[in-house]
């Protein structure tokens, strides 16, 4: 028998014999991964929203100022836009009023065309079904003749 087949439990276990050290003893060696990292805290600098800055800010006043500025910008835009919209909307209304009379005849033609197309498609479908039935009948006849 070779030494490769021997169990190594005894030597892996370690012990108190000569040349063997106690594996449970505390060592003085340690890994760099055991060292603490990120040991310093970063504090907020001036201008990064510290508690003192937040206490001294007037949020309501800032909000009202921003709303007031936006209202002024919006009111100047709105004063210009309604005149454009009113002329555009009146022109659109005129066009919409004229469209139904002109398009009624066109709609009738389109409907009759679609009805004609539908009828043609249904007729084609019936022809295809008849051709399929005829082919199946021929196959059945051929199978019957072959089996007899």
Automatic annotation (TrEMBL):
Composition skew (Basic and acidic residues), residue ranges: 70-84
Region of interest (Disordered), ranges: 1-25, 70-95
Stated name of the protein: CW15A protein
InterPro entries tied to this protein: Cwf_Cwc_15
Protein family (similarity comment): Belongs to the CWC15 family.
Keyword Chaperone: no
Gene Ontology terms: biological process: mRNA cis splicing, via spliceosome
Gene: Cwc15a_1
A single MF term (Gene Ontology): RNA binding
Domain of life, per lineage: Eukaryota
GO cellular component, one term: catalytic step 2 spliceosome
Key words of the record: mRNA processing, mRNA splicing
PANTHER family on file: CELL CYCLE CONTROL PROTEIN CWF15, SPLICEOSOME-ASSOCIATED PROTEIN CWC15 HOMOLOG
